[in-house]
Amino acid sequence: MRVAQIIRETDAEGPGCRFAVWVQGCPMRCRGCCNPTMLLENSELPGVRWYGVAELLRGLAESAAEGVTLLGGEPFAQPAALARFAEGAQGLGRSVMIFTGFTLAELRARRDPATEALLSATDLLVDGRYDDTQRSTDRRFIGSANQVLHFLSSRYDPLDPRLHTQNHLEIRVRRDHITLNGWPIAGVGTAQRLLDGAARRPRGQGS
Ligand code: SF4
Q: Which residue would you say has higher pLDDT here, 159 or 203?
């Protein structure tokens, strides 16, 4: 699968510690998308590369994350490979959360076996395009009021406090670049001022 970035342990992309995979490529063009560099399928940007399912699962097995979060980019633009990864993650006892720009109804209407397989291996789904006219910070992990958090399995309780605490931003300083992930709307301006002059690669919830 075509991947833009992986953070092996983050607390900003779903409940608990997550193994977060930002896929590369999205057919939508939401105004205000926080990850515009992840829209082109064939991007040659540094860091974008193909991963096999087994390679990702090895990385996940070595991680302490309680679950995987798939975002981007558009995970349902690559449903077959991601379904195998999500099934493997659940086989390791990990949960699966996905951010998609499609609505759940649109995905069901595809009647596509790979899409159904990926949905079947998903515990939490945040669906719908990001609509900057409905931007919202009221609900954790959800960027605009039209988007919905679906509980596709019984693994998470809708009252789980981790789904209702405040969004936050994570900043990682690496040898040759800096990454931002989590909630870019509230904090990215401040963070970018702090990091003025340094190389940076902002990454937030993708849809
Ligand atoms: S917000 Fe999500 S669905 Fe919309 S263009 Fe960006 S990555 Fe695609």
A: 159
Secondary structure (H, E, C), the chain: CEEEEEEEEECCCCCCCEEEEEECCCCCCCCCCCCHHHCCCCCCCCCCEECCHHHHHHHHHCCCCCEEEEECCCHHHCHHHHHHHHHHHHHCCCEEEEECCCCHHHHHHHCCHHHHHHHHCCCEEEECCCCHHHECCCCCCCCECCCEEEECCCCCCCCCHHHCCCCCEEEEECCCCEEEEECHHHHHHHHHHHCCCCCEEECCCCC
- Distance from residue 206's CA to the centre of ligand 1 (Å): 6
Of 13, 74, 78, 141, the one to substitute when testing ligand 1's pocket (max ligand atoms within 8 A of C-beta) is 74
Q: Give the predicted TM-score (pTM) of the model.
A: 0.89
- CATH class of the structural domain 2-165: alpha beta
Give the tens place of pLDDT for each residue, 117-149. 999 999 999 999 999 999 988 899 999 999 999
